[in-house]
Amino acid sequence: MAFVSGPSYSAWQGSGNMTVVDKVPPDMLHMVDAHWFQFPPMNPLWHSILGFAIFCLGVTSVIGNGMVIFIFSTTKSLRTPSNLLVVNLAFSDFFMMFTMFPPMVYNCYHETWVLGPLICEIYAMLGSLFGSVSIWTMTMIALDRYNVIVKGLSAKPMTNGSAMMRIMLVWVLSIVWVSFPFFGWNRYVPEGNMTACGTDYLSKDWTSRSYILVYSVFVYFAPLLTIIYSYFFIVQAVAAHEKSMREQAKKMNVASLRSSEAANTSAECKLAKVALMTITLWFFAWTPYLIINYAGVFESMTISPLATIWGSLFAKANAVYNPIVYGISHPKYRAALGARFPSLVCAGEPADDGTSVVSGATNVSEEKPAA
After folding, report:
1. pTM
2. What is the spatial distance between Cα 8 and Cα 20, in angstroms, rounded to a whole number?
3. Got the DSSP string for 270-329?
4. pLDDT above 80 for 303
5. Domains and CATH numbers, the chain
6. What is the C-alpha separation between 331 and 2, in angstroms, rounded?
7. Which segment of 83-97, 139-153, 265-279 scores lowest on mean pLDDT?
8. What element of type H or E holds 237?
9. Which of 325, 132, 147 is nearest to 229 (CA)?
């Protein structure tokens, strides 16, 4: 099939020989897979809805994650080694939407990708990069929870140096993986509705297909299995601890044995639940996009332009969830947020328990005078 540019049009028509590719500029046509030439153009209303949705998500993410970075960086009690992971997660989410939503809004206005092949490739690479950094940062957070809760006093505490080493490792490995399509292992191409770009999951050669499969192991299955492993033992340790506390209280004929150490353990568990919530949201956000990629690789079902762009948009929306979870669930973050922006605090008084948001390390001397 010859890749030719179709006629321009101002109104959507549901009949004729027009396709979703008709508005693609000539310099982009070599990047468009033949699969998309079978679909009629999308109703312009869908482009408007997509543009509006990504704009709202982008603004919310940039503001929310920007505030997380600001609060964690300027609040002394939150500047702990483990909380560097939270800052890195917010940094990644911030730039995910900061780099993703303006080009997509602009292209939705034009109803096709008009920024050229190079920007398309960079756009897709950045989306993959920040998505990879986010999930591996969450994995590091889960491993930190495992270290603190499961190993307890025998755990080697995280230092600023070790936290920075983990963050650097996440960024270096992610950059390496997303660079491969620039060197011939797969490629970055326009998504189905031609207003965003991503990896090529429609090429029939196994060089391209193998990248999707191997990369999905690196950015999806490996971190997901590591997180499941960590939280399995975290839940097991919490259950065992709670059972032991109840049995001991029963023997001593008291209502509770909640000492300072027990309170700290309880705070650790609450923070682990919050971390688990963010990871669960990540799973639900990115799984549909993985299914779309695998459907393209294995040709298991017909992929429409509208399905691909909504899958991509849903995945990017994960960058919005985390600051909302922090605002609702993290007592120390709520306390610091309330001190600087009282009107933004969720209902209810934040619990000033002296715990850091991720590490859970208690520093009572910073928050309360000595008895």
Report:
1. 0.82
2. 11
3. HHHHHHHHHHHHHHHHHHHHHHHHHHHHHT-S---HHHHHHHHHHHHTHHHHHHHHHHHH
4. yes
5. 44-249+259-342 (1.20.1070.10)
6. 60
7. 265-279
8. helix 222-251
9. 147
Q: What is the pLDDT of residues 94-118, one digit of tens each?
A: 999 999 999 999 999 999 999 999 9
Cβ atoms 345, 337 nearer than 8 A: yes
| pLDDT over 60 (residue 364) | no
Q: Are 310 and 317 in contact (CB under 8 A)?
A: no
Asked if residue 355 lies in contact with residue 271, where contact means CB atoms within 8 angstroms, the answer is yes
Question: How far, in Å, CA of 305 to CA of 22, rounded?
Answer: 13
What one-character-per-residue DSSP string does 5-44 give?
Answer: -----SS--SSSS--TTTTS-GGGGGGS-GGGGGSPPPPH
pLDDT score, position 216: 94
316 contacts: CB under 8 Å, gap ≥ 6: 54, 57, 96, 97, 100, 101, 127
The pair of structure tokens assigned to 239 is: 């259950």
Whole-number Å distance between alpha carbons of 261 and 241:
12
The tokens 């029939």 sit on which residue?
Answer: 204
Residue type, 205: D
Burial tier of 184 (Cβ tally within 10 Å: 0-12, 13-18, 19+): exposed
State both tokens at 3: 């890749």
Using DSSP's 3-state secondary structure scheme, residue 75 falls into coil
Angstrom CA distances, 171 to 97, 239, 240, 242, stand at 17, 35, 36, 38
Q: pLDDT for 41-90, tens place per residue? A: 999 999 999 999 999 999 999 999 998 899 988 888 888 888 899 899 99
Q: Comparing C-alpha atoms, which of 288, 277, 285, 359 is closest to residue 322? A: 277
Both tokens of 186, joined, read 């797969």
pLDDT at residue 6, as a whole number: 38
Residue 91 confidence (pLDDT) above 90: yes
